[in-house]
Amino acid sequence: VAMAHAFLFTGQWMNNLYRTSSPNNPEELQEVHCTTACLKSTCSSLMSRAIEACRLACGGHGYSQSSGFPRLYTWATPAETYEGESHVMWLQSARYLVKCVGMVTSDQSSLPAG
User: Which entry of 27, 80, 83, 85 is annotated as an active-site residue?
Assistant: First the structure.
């Protein structure tokens, strides 16, 4: 339940970030892309794992169609590959973060002294 609320609030925050970003500012668009790629892969991966954990917690009954888990599992697990496979999305996010670290470390004036 807590994870569902975290996804809900994060989705609302992401929607606000997208609406307030300027389409003419490449830095903002890169940040939005990085954030959405990371959130998409993280949320879909955690959702699939949570459904599988619930199904396993039900023992043999989790495999029964009447439990609803088989239908939910087949509906939810493809989300990890829709609009970009999760590992590719994580790599895109990591590439952007490494680029940001490189920009900060190359500009010594923005780093704290010490």
Answer: 83
